[in-house]
Specification:
- It is built from eleven helices and four strands, in the order αααααααααβαββαβ.
- Helix content is about 65%, strand content about 10%.
- The chain is globular.
- A hairpin with a 4-residue loop joins β2 and β3.
Length: about 325
């Protein structure tokens, strides 16, 4: 932090952001804060770059190692590119760029410039990888091709999304259309894929279309694992009279952190209002049975609400070991 090089970097960042203060000196606190922000941004950008790179190579391997040889397709923008490639002599690496151009424009409008720039990098990287790198044809078995082709393609899409970009712009289109139409994102994605697989059945064959559906299901499931994590988390809200004992149990026996809300509880025929502490915690699916057992030991009539949590960050969810 005391090095001359670090101070030059930080002051340059501060000067660029606030040109009016270019001639002013900055306090140690301002420099330290800017330095910390610079480190966080740098680490995040490196991580995103690595994730997108892994995604590009994984998707390329799924394409050239499995799907292209058997003319199987996927859903979404990649499915459109694969279908056109199977019907024409246009190389896939050119189609990947052409098909995704409208989605890149939509990404810029909906998600912002930074997301669009990352998406351009990801799609261009995928195209270059498909054009220049040779992957072996792993198998000609149709079932294995559809399952593992979808696996590697879904993993590639998932890692790219983790890195803050997309190589399949279907969800961007679905977000845009959901704002214009009275339909959910999921409904629009299903409709798009029905059209794609119907075209595959008509132009290729029903057998290819059916195998392509397996590819899509495999890719979708893999994508969910990459984005949401293999370990499923459960958010638990507990309303109980003996909330303090339950709070202590979660901390000591479960090894998890808790958040306590000060709320009001209505009960009885007259709707009496009573002040009460509401406990919220996040556990893994495997710990759910133990938590229910421990709550029942303390207060069997406790009101417990559970809901799925896609992912977690920070806190004590992954840090403290369980006390068995």
């Amino acid at each position: 932090m005391n090095s001359l090089f670090t101070q030059i970097i930080v002051k340059t960042i501060l000067t660029t952001r606030n040109k009016k203060s270019a001639k002013n000196s900055y306090s140690s606190y301002v420099i330290a804060k800017a330095y910390r922000a610079f480190l966080i941004s740098t680490k995040r950008n490196i991580k995103n770059f690595l994730l997108i790179t892994i995604g590009i190579f994984s998707a390329s391997f799924g394409f050239k190692g499995f799907l292209l040889t058997n003319h199987f397709i996927d859903g979404g923008a990649t499915g459109i590119a694969l279908l056109i490639s199977a019907l024409t002599e246009i190389p896939l690496y050119i189609l990947i760029i052409c098909v995704n151009i409208p989605f890149i424009i939509l990404a810029y409008v909906i998600m912002g410039r930074q997301f669009a720039i990352k998406t351009v990098f990801a799609i261009a990287g995928l195209s270059i990888c498909l054009a220049t790198i040779t992957f072996p044809n792993v198998t000609n078995d149709n079932l294995l091709v559809s399952i593992f082709g979808g696996f590697f393609l879904g993993a590639g899409i998932g890692f790219t999304i983790r890195g803050g970009a997309v190589i399949d712009g279907t969800e961007v289109l679905a977000i845009f259309l959901s704002r214009k139409l009275a339909a959910t994102i999921g409904d629009i994605i299903i409709l798009i894929n029905v059209i794609i697989f119907s075209a595959a059945a008509y132009f290729l064959s029903i057998e290819v279309a059916l195998y392509s559906m397996i590819t899509y299901l495999s890719a979708s499931k893999t994508l969910d694992f990459i984005i949401e994590g293999i370990e499923e988390y459960i958010g638990v809200t507990i309303v109980a009279s003996r909330s303090d004992e339950i709070r202590q149990m979660i901390i000591t026996k479960m090894g998890r952190g808790v958040t306590v809300y000060n709320g009001k509880r209505g009960y009885g025929k007259r709707g009496e209002i009573k002040q009460i502490d509401i406990i919220y915690t996040v556990i893994t699916r495997l710990e759910l049975n133990k938590l229910n057992t421990e709550i029942e030991k303390i207060e069997p009539s406790a009101f417990v609400v559970m809901n799925s949590v896609k992912d977690t960050k920070g806190g004590m969810i992954k840090k403290r070991p369980l006390n068995h």
